Amino acid sequence: MKEMIEYCGLDCEQCDAYLATIHNDQALREKTAKLWAELNNAPILPAHINCEGCRKNGTKTVFCDSLCEIRKCALHKGVSTCGDCPELDACPTVGAIISNNPAAFKNLKG
Question: CA 17, CA 40: separation in Å to the nearest integer?
Answer without folding.
Answer: 15
